[in-house]
Amino acid sequence: MITFDEIRHNEDINTYIRKADESLIALGYTEHSFAHVTTVAQTARYIMETLDYPPRQVELVQIAAYLHDIGNLVNRVDHSQSGAVMAFRLLDNLGMEASEISEIVTAIGNHDEGTGRPVSPMAAALILADKSDVRRSRVRNREEGSFDIHDRVNYSVKKAELKINESRTLIKLKLSVDTRYGSVMDYFEIFMNRMMLCRKAAEELGLQFKLMINEQALI
What we know:
Distance between the termini: 40 Å
Order of helices and strands: HHHHHHHHEEHEE
């Protein structure tokens, strides 16, 4: 069986992740490199482990998370679909079973809020993990005066925490936002579609979704 450890130490895969992020640097996007995909993999693992999914599915969702943004190498537009195709070829060449490849490809192809849907538990966990990675360190622009709205929103988040409650009925994204850099309305302007997708993803996992910003429940 192909393991997550093998994937994250595969130099070809790491080259594609690195080069995909270089394209996003040129376009002025926030960080989508190893810090992002590793964070998403850790969060997706937490979600599926907490909900008692089988260990192999937990490992597969980590692989999906690590590979989920490689489609940016092709183009930012439809990167989830192109990334799914790339992941299929990579994993097929590594000898992974078709049943496992299909789960990973489905999750990657459905992680973006433009066209994605939480069509499986793995896709749902990937959506929640990806959309909850909001943090100051993702901002590459060091000139505060030239921040765009994505820079302002990410830079304003001092802390982001995604937690499932003890009874496993609720998943909560709790943000601590410094409103000197970005307002709550700024957050909603660019993240509303993502939060609505998170709510659908939570429902796929049998959970309710709650968004809290500065201790105020907003969704």
